[in-house]
Every structure is written in structure tokens, then in C-alpha cells.
Amino acid sequence: MPPQQTNHLDLDSSTISAGGVNGGTRPSKGIEVGSCNINEIGLESFIRRIVGEIDIHLTEDCHFNLNDRAVMYKWKDVFEIEQVYTKCLGISERLYRCHAYTHEVDKRLTYFILEEFNKRSYSFLPDFKYYVLIFCSYDENRGVCEVSVQYDQMSFFLHCMGITTMTRWILANISTPPAKFWAKSFAATGCVNPFTFLLFIAVLVW
Length: 206
Description:
By secondary structure, the protein is of the alpha+beta class. The protein is 34% helix and 34% strand.
């Protein structure tokens, strides 16, 4: 079950058909699992494409919750603010991808993981890939009425500032080589166990 979703699903064999992974089914218990192959540039293009996969549509109004940090009520505002927000973060282009979705027909709810590739405006800022969890509810007319976007905001900003890329480089090229040397040297003593390890830490700290 995706995080922060309180309702629990009983995903037994009678609930989800194996065929749903290859294109989507509508089992009797109201849960559909489907595959899709969406590659779109820009948030608006992606949103309009993904809702079409589930045969729902956008209306003018929508309760759009951005990670519990902002709430908007018009799709027009969502798309306009996203463009400004993108430029402020030094992102020139966003490629959105989605390969599968889960659709709870009886609850009029669908959710999916969005893969977001961010191309930067400046060469000194690294491109990065990020994953976002999206919940989407719709009304009896199949119009989208509520969207909740959830992601690790701190991690996202660390990616934006290049800190994550720099940290990975430091760990791979500076921290890892001496750690490997120590592990091999420790193994060569022939006394590798929790007690000798704790003794080593105690001596090192002392």
C-alpha cells in the first residue's frame, strides 16, 4: 500500500486479475491494475494524458494538495504556478513518465508513481531523476475533483542544489576506498566478529 494512505486493501487473488498488469481489467471487487507507457514533457501534458488512460477528465476546479505545503483549487493555477516554480529551481524541462497505475473503481480513486526527469537550465547544476506518488479522486461524472501529490521535499531540494550528486561522488571516491581497505585488513586478521569490532571502535575512540 502506498505511504500515507490509511485505507487498507485486501489484495487477494480474486481481487486483482493477472491480466490487469498487461492493460487493465475491472474485477468484480472494483480494483484495477493497469500498465501504461506515458512519456510527456510538461506537467499539463502529462496530467491530461494520464487521466485519459483511466477514462476520467479534468474540470475547471480541483482540490490540489501539493505535499501538504500548498493547496490550490483551479487547474489553471496549478499549471501556471508549476511553470514559475520550475524556472525558479533552475529547471528548463521536465520529462514525466508513468508505467502503471492502481484504480479503485468503487472508491473512485486511482494512484500511481510518477517518474520525473529534471533537465537543468545551467550546466553547473546537475540533471536529476525523482519519484512522486500521486493520488487522484474523481466524482460521479468522472471529473477529477481531488489530487494529492506526495514526495520527500527535503530530498528534492538537496537534488536541486546538487548536494545529493556531490555527496554521492564523495562517498564513492573518497569514503569508499579507505573503507574497503579497512574491511580487507580487518578480514586478514582472522578475528572478525562483533566483539573484535567493538574492541576496535573502543580503541579508535580512546
